[in-house]
Amino acid sequence: MFDLSRAFAEEQDQKDTLKNYKNQFYFPQRNGKDAIYFCGNSLGLQARNVQQAVMQELEDWQQCAVEGYWGARNPWLYYQQYCSRPMMEIVGASQEELTVMNTLTVNLHLMMMSFYKPTKERFKILMEAGAFPSDQYAVETQVKLHGLDPATAIIEVAPREGEFLIREEDIFQIIDQESSSLALILLGGINYYTGQLFNMQSITKAAHRAGAVVGFDLAHVVGNVPVKLHDWEVDFAVWCSYKYLNGGPGAVGGAFIHERHARDRNRPRLGGWWGNEETIRFKMEKGFEPKDRAEGWQISTAQVFNMVALKASLELFESAGMAALRDKSIQLTNYLEFLLKHIENIKFEIITPKNCKERGAQLSLLFHDRGKEIQQKMTEAGIIVDWREPGVIRISPAPLYNSYGDVFHFYEIIANIA
Ligand SMILES: *Cc1c(COP(=O)(O)O)cnc(C)c1O
């Protein structure tokens, strides 16, 4: 169904119902032209509607000052809700289960304070070997905070000898084996390095059968693969907003807390006035009364300028629709894979799962040699890809702003390297 001609790419772009979204973004300039940008898994592009949205908040601050909390065109008091509402479709949750606050690793710590409750018998955390370093550091320090030894409290599930991907059967086996000692399972929904997408629904089921809590880091999932956190009964999830969601560098991250926990005001947590019941927040009284929703985990004043670009970008997600984005993404990544399989001049392997249901937009290419050189060639040709030691180039065609023509162009460059 795919072919190797340029005409094929052009025809697909013609037919693409999402093609016009590309015009809604700014691209870095290379050689006097728009770069081809395949790094949406690392930092998403700036949408063209962001500048106006930032200007509006600057004006409202000029005009309203303190009254902006209530009187701005988007009253600042509720800013997180302008982002959590469009997030509902993206992660499959109700608005009461969502909030937008802090950044990813901070939210992971906050969730672990509430959901990692080690006892003498049940104290272990299962995570993936080779998890993103920040997640590893968060888990290691949380374990130490409870006076436990990371060497015994953290179990890592790793790919088998000679393999790159984690077998789900191995996750289930550890859950079974450790069912009396597991307190928490914490996995990246998609592994940042290999691009492997885990079956979060069945892992959650297995975790709950074992009596463990389950949380996911969705940094590489949000805005990439639609999920159903509520229906799957995931306990909590956290993510950042600057990757596929295009929220801008350091944008405010997100958190999901399933309603069965979010409604429980007695769940222990680290509190602050922004998580307090709004009706009594400004009475400045003693006694923390958390909101009976995910917003009850907020601590500080809404970070308006770290949310405004996200709010603007989410408007594009809303109008494109997550299902349509995923459909295009599957096609685009399958096409990229098809082309890469026809490359004979350079040796590499694709370590991302072959099944499109087990991956998102990203393909990870492992080069045993010449990887750096290839990346250099890409850069010279105005194609921005990402390099991870020890030899992986990650390529993520983002359905909002990448085209079949972009993917074809990438293929041409790599196919013509001597
Ligand atoms: C990008 C990423 C992070 C980044 O965390 P911050 O707190 O936003 O700096 C953490 N974990 C994973 C899995 C990531 O992919």
UniProtKB/TrEMBL annotation:
GO terms for cellular component: cytoplasm. Keywords: Hydrolase, Pyridine nucleotide biosynthesis, Pyridoxal phosphate. The modification N6-(pyridoxal phosphate)lysine is found at K243. Pyridoxal 5'-phosphate binds at L104, T105, F132, P133, S134, D135, D217, H220, Y242, W273, T301. GO terms for molecular function: kynureninase activity; pyridoxal phosphate binding. Its cofactor is pyridoxal 5'-phosphate. Pfam families: KYNU_C. Belongs to the kynureninase family. This is Kynureninase. The gene is kynU.
